[in-house]
Amino acid sequence: MNNFSYWNPTRIHFGKGAIAELRNRVPESAHVFLIYGGGSIKSNGVYEQVVSALRPRAITEFGGIEPNPKYETCMKAVETGKFAGVDFLLAVGGGSVLDATKFISAAMRYSGQDPWEILAASAPVTSALPLGCVMTLPATGSEMNSFAVISREGTRDKRHFSSDWVRPLFSILDPETTFSLSSRQTANGIVDAWVHVCEQYLTYPADARLQDRQAEAILLTLLELGPKVLKRPTDYEIRAQLMWCATQALNELIACGVPQDWSTHMIGHELTALYGIDHGQSLAVALPGVLHFQREKKRKKLSQYAERIWGLSGRGKTAEEAIGLTEDFFKSLGVNTRLSDYGIPASVCEEIGKRFSSRGVHLGEHRDLGGSEVAEILKSRL
To answer: Quick check: is 165 in a domain?
Structure first.
C-alpha cells in the first residue's frame, strides 16, 4: 500500500427530515447565499423545507445553475453575492450546483486578476466563503470532497480544481429528495458513481486489500440496486443505499494508498464541453474504450474485477468479458455507450486528441495517454 494522508472534515446529516438540521448548522447571524439550479426544488417541496429551516436568517437567492455549471453563470453569482454582502453559501441541488457553489465561494475571495485562473492555471485558493449543501441528486460525490468542475462557454473548456478551502462544512442527504428525479438523471448518477470507483480501483495492484473490497462493495451495491431503482423510484431504502454509494465513491476514502486513473473523466469532460452530452453519458462512452485500450496494463485488476464483480473465473478472456459486461450494464440503465448514439461525428476523435496534445497533457495511472492515444480510444467508441 502506498503512503497517504487522509482528512475529511465534512459532517454528513443523512435521512428523512434531515433538512431541518440547517437551523443548527448555519450560523444564526449568517446572510445566506442560496444557490440552486433550474427550480425543481420549488416544485418538489425541498425549497420550502430549506427556507423554513433557515428562518429568520437573511437570504439572497441565485437560481439557474446549469447541469454542467458555466463559468459565466458562476461569475454572475459572484457579482450578486458581493453586492448583497452574503457570508455563507448554501448549495441546494445536485453535484453541478455544489460544484458551482464551491467555485463561487473561492472566486468571491480570489485576489488575482481573473478567477478562471483557479481552473485553467491551477492558481492556489487561499481563502473561500464557508459553504454547506443540501444534496438532491446523488452522483458526483461533491458533497464530501474538495473537487469541482466548471465549464467555460466562450472557450468550450471544462476544467476542474481542488482545494480544502471549498470542502462543505456539512452536507444534508435526505433520500426522499431524490424521489422526483427522472430515470435519465438517476441512471447518469449511477454511471458517474460507478466510474468514480473504477478510476480508483481499475489501475494496478497496490496490495490495498481493504480499499479494494470497499470499492467492490460500492460496485456490487450499484449493480444490484441500479436496475431496481428505475422500476421503483420512490423506494426509500433503495434511494438511500444509492445516495450513500455515490458519496462513498468519491469522498477520497477508497483512494487512500492506491494509484488512480482519471483519464475517463478527462476525456468525458471534453465530450461534454464540445457536444453538451450529459456527464454520465460521456463517461459511459469513454470508460469501455479506456479499459480496452489499457487492458494489458490493467489486466491484473481487470481480472480481479471480472471475478469479484461479474463472477467470471477460469477463462482466458475474463478481462475483455468484464469490459463488455460493464458496457452492457450501462446500456441496461438506458445510458448509451457509443459516440454515434449521441450524433457525435468521427472528427471528434482527432479534435479532442489535438486539444490534449496542445496542453501537453498525459493521462492515466502511468501518464502514458497523450493526444494520439486519446484519439485512438475515441475511434474505438464510434
So the answer is: yes
